Amino acid sequence: xxxxxxxxxxxxxxxxxxxxxxxxxxxxxxxxxxxxxxxxxxxxxxxxxxxxxxxxxxxxxxxxxxxxxxxxxxxxxxxxxxxxxxxxxxxxxxxxxxxxxxxxxxxxxxxxxxxxxxxxxxxxxxxxxxxxxxxxxxxxxxxxxxxxxxxxxxxxxxxxxxxxxxxxxxxxxxxxxxxxxxxxxxxxxxxxxxxxxxxxxxxxxxxxxxxxxxxxxxxxxxxxxxxxxxxxxxxxxxxxx
Amino acid sequence: xxxxxxxxxxxxxxxxxxxxxxxxxxxxxxxxxxxxxxxxxxxxxxxxxxxxxxxxxxxxxxxxxxxxxxxxxxxxxxxxxxxxxxxxxxxxxxxxxxxxxxxxxxxxxxxxxxxxxxxxxxxxxxxxxxxxxxxxxxxxxxxxxxxxxxxxxxxxxxxxxxxxxxxxxxxxxxxxxxxxxxxxxxxxxxxxxxxxxxxxxxxxxxxxxxxxxxxxxxxxxxxxxxxxxxxxxxxxxxxxxxxxxxxxxxxxxxxxxxxxxxxxxxxxxxxxxxxxxxxxxxxxxxxxxxxxxxxxxxxxxxxxxxxxxxxxxxxxxxxxxxxxxxxxxxxxxxxxxxxxxxxxxxxxxxx
Lengths: 241, 351
Hints:
The complex is a heterodimer.
Chain A: E1 4-13, E2 16-26, E3 31-35, H1 42-49, E4 57-62, E5 65-66, H2 72-78, E6 80-82, H3 95-103, H4 110-123, H5 139-151, E7 157-161, H6 169-184, E8 188-192, H7 196-202, E9 205-210, E10 213-218, H8 220-223, H9 227-239
Parallel strand pairs in A: 3-8, 3-9, 6-7, 7-8
Antiparallel strand pairs in A: 1-2, 1-4, 4-5, 9-10
Helix pairs in contact in A: 3-4, 3-5, 5-6
Chain B: H1 2-10, H2 12-22, H3 25-42, H4 50-75, H5 84-99, H6 105-129, H7 134-154, E1 164-165, H8 182-204, H9 206-216, H10 218-223, H11 228-254, E2 256-257, H12 259-262, H13 265-279, H14 286-305, H15 312-327, H16 331-350
Antiparallel strand pairs in B: 1-2
């Protein structure tokens, strides 16, 4: 069985079906992108998988365990971690302490957590920021901190929710590099993204959501040629690129 | 500054001592706390007045109680406004055990702590069960305080509205009854040292960091594996337990307890909240710095103005609190931390 198996999850808010019959199967080290117009249900799908919303239907099987409707911290303990679209740094703590909180997911020892946090910051080239308070970081720094914190929990799968939104092109390239590095460690990455450049350069596979329904999925080159996807999301101008 | 200068010349030995005591802001806060405790401990050698010693005793006790609230409200960010509930429960437990069951307060105040901690568990479970957070959590604790006051006013076993008095016997160490102030001072300081140690251990542990993660952002904390319900409950248990112990000693010191005196939000502000807020909520030294400013100033205002129109002391004390929050939003500890960073920065470049 695949590392992460999402089977037909459905989430309704009152009369609105935000996500319907969403399925996904991911293997170790794979990068899958979820795209679609605003309100398509991308973040909702994320929230169901990561345990923030209860699914009305369907199952999430992770690492051969049924984690459907488990709490986020239990899911994180299993090795599935998410970041937030609107970054949520622990502002009053330093960058190192922020990352240590992630590291504590796997140890109770302060020194072990500190070592792990340093190792992650080194790996991502952020060691110079260690002693800075998170509320002093610019937006790009906060986005990178989200990834660092998540990586410190030693995940098998990482869900990245619009990590590149609001970044300048140069910063975007930096973060793309970070995501590649994380992926090369064998971490599977499932990302929601609007920036097509990011999607095209990172994703092994793409899933397209529209009004909660999966309208297309496959390798990037095929998906961007799909007429339904062009109509719903990309528009003609992007179809070539 | 002079210490820093010598530090640069003499190198290793003094640098390591300097580093141990003032190497970073956390160490500095602990060093300052220890110095303040020592100063209070030697006070009886210089001060004879029971009145002034009484102020120091209560300042030490308020610092301990402030620490108990700091762990819940400062570290974890839970708005446990009516924290004085735990003080009252610890106090009542201690005095009932002594008066009715003849159990020594040396044991009684710790049983009081356990009773308060159990009450803390109940409060945490109810509020978590019904998802009461932030302001709703605060309102719940205030409502509980009012309900408990009514209950204790009607409860004859604990003296109803009259409350309970310590049967003043001959001074006896076993009953924690003394005819001079210094023994009370050393008990209060003993508690304060326990409080400082526990607070530091919590602060530096995984638990403490999880508390702070919850304070900063609960959703982000849970994404990173923090069982927020469990850690919020733990912080209430620790805070409540320490407050219960403080309440037990408080009653032994003031020798009586009554419902309107302790199930009282105004008293709650003075005993529990003012210290950590003036000193710096969430910091290590804040509760101690704050108590040492708060208690004497409250006493001073009372001393000068109590004879004037009724209520004027409360107005002036309130103004004092408001201005201190306005000008020091992060408290005295925040002001000192800024200074410390300014002094330290150049020396870091040298290394």
